[in-house]
Amino acid sequence: MPLVRRRARAAEESDAESPTTQRRRVSPSSDAEDEDVDATQGENNQTSQMANKLVRLAFSNEHSRTPTRRTDISAKVLGSQGRQFKAVFSQAQELLRSKYAVELTPLPSKEKVTLRDRRAAAKAEKTNAPTNAWVLTTCLPEKYRKPDIIGPAKAPTFEQEASYTGLYSFVITCIILNGGSISESKLDRYLKRMNIDISTPVGPTDKVLSQMIKHSYIVRTTDTSGGEENIDYTVGPRGKVEVGEQGAAGLVRTVYGEDAPDDLDRKLDRSLRLAHSRIRTQQQSQDEATAQNGTGRGWGRPRRHGQDGESE
To answer: E-assigned strands of the chain?
Structure first.
């Protein structure tokens, strides 16, 4: 009997030890899976934190009307995680759209107005470079884009912001309806008609125009190639995004109201076609300059070719 009891006790002890042994055998794979899950969650948390940083950076820059540049994102958001730009930018964009009804819109490049600028752009050969600057714009449906819903900001004050918005919208509209470019003397005449040639509700006219240039609503160019100094204004990158042709046409229709003439849309279309024609002419000039500088050999002799047509 004692021998039977000892055998039964040994069998019970072996049965009790077997689950522990199985757990020990399974534990390495389960630990690896837990580590993978923890690493994935850590990466997701890090991406979310950087996306929130990008959102805060975009709102901070928009408050001062400063574009959010790729270099700022790399330095202030990504740090050593530069390869995470696409994932962070995509998550920040989704957060902006879903919670704040805005989105990061790329800024177009400045127009090459003067002959010197066009030649410089042709030599640089970077016309297809990706956009490295963005601004915040609303993504609300068109039916919700009303002054009662989307009004001017309250900083510094509601009145000052509304006045400044109206001023740069008026100047941009004058430029667009003038064919996309307007001389300084002609712009002064328009401002004088509005009785804002010296001062405006937000400060002196010269200071306000300088502020518009700083904020990239308009661009001031000086051309002395003809022997005389010619100063012109064109629409800047931010002006194209925030106002553009649709905003200019909307401003004109709002001013006329119910008293708009029957041919107002036809006149607007003609003015916008003039602007498009000027842009196409500039683009063709830039393409010609690029073609002339494409080979990098200037106006020298062409390369000689062998009998088989290959360059020697």
So the answer is: 68-69, 102-106, 133-138, 181-183, 199-200, 203-204, 218-223, 230-235
The answer to whether the CB of 73 falls within 8 A of the CB of 57 is: yes
Smallest CA-to-CA distance from 179 within 98, 271, 88, 46 is with: 271
Is the bond into 156 cis (omega within 30 degrees of 0)? yes
pTM: 0.74
C-beta neighbour count of 46 within 10 angstroms: 14
Each domain of the chain, given as residue ranges in start order, spans: 41-124+132-141, 156-289
- Its CATH architecture, for the domain 156-289, is Orthogonal Bundle (1.10)
Residues 139, 140, 146: CA angle, nearest 5 degrees:
125
User: Taking a C-beta distance cutoff of 8 angstroms, is the pair 191, 258 a contact?
Assistant: no
Q: Phi and psi (nearest 5°) for 111?
A: -70, 140
Q: How confident is the model at residue 149 (pLDDT cuts 50, 70, 90)?
A: confident
Q: What's the token pair of residue 220?
A: 């001031």
Q: Which residue has the higher pLDDT, 17 or 82?
A: 82
pLDDT at 297: 42
At residue 16, the pLDDT reads 52
41-124+132-141 and 156-289 in the same fold? yes
Q: Which CATH superfamily is domain 41-124+132-141 in?
A: MAGE homology domain, winged helix WH1 motif (1.10.10.1200)
Collapsing DSSP to helix, strand or coil, 280 comes out as: helix
pLDDT digits (tens, 9 = 90+) for 23-63: 445 455 555 555 555 556 667 889 999 999 999 999 999 99
Total Cβ atoms within 10 A of residue 87? 16
